[in-house]
Here is the input.
Amino acid sequence: ILYLTLVPSTVQSSVAFTSVARGNVAGAIVSASASNLVGVVATPALVMLLMSSGSGIKIDSSVFADIAIQLLLPFIIGQLARRWVKETASAQWTKTVDRGSIAMVVYSAFSAGIVAGIWHQVSIIDVVILTAFSIILVALMLWLTRFIALRCGFNREDMIAIQFCGTKKSLATGLPMAAVIFGSSNVGLLILPLMIFHQVQLIMCAWLSARYARDDHQEAVPR
Here is the structure.
């Protein structure tokens, strides 16, 4: 659960939900991308600070370089090559590749859990508790991000982006980070809370984004 809280935000789903809810899409893109860029350093640093002492977990400083190569280097190369590949990257088929890669990450996470035998180590009660915890945590963060955004004077569109970017945790980023930090043999059980949280956040945020879209439509209809 502690590792779950240290993972950066998602990009794709945060932007998608913000778009559906008619929020600030540009702000969501920048915010979620910044979270992932900062997370390349912040996540392993926080794991070393909070999870290394007294838990039997030993983390080497080389994980920073390994994570940067896996997650940061492709981003940098993509930005540098944008001048030459932007037409290809904006084609319809790249969306299929993007969604397929996310699906493969999720499939890999669940497969790693099954191979590691986590479903024999974790009882139904534990799964129910993790699910209930995830629901409470998502609901709490959705309320907290909305409350803070409104108190700080942000408008409706910005508040929506803050909500959806500030409540998400990325399985697509958290899984490779966990494999580098803890070793692939220990990933299955460790990312179980993240896998459950990921499904819960998608369901709850999908409902909320649809509600925002419906409310916005009703306000726009003349009476």
Observations:
- The chain is about 80% helix and 0% strand.
- The longest helix spans residues 192-220.
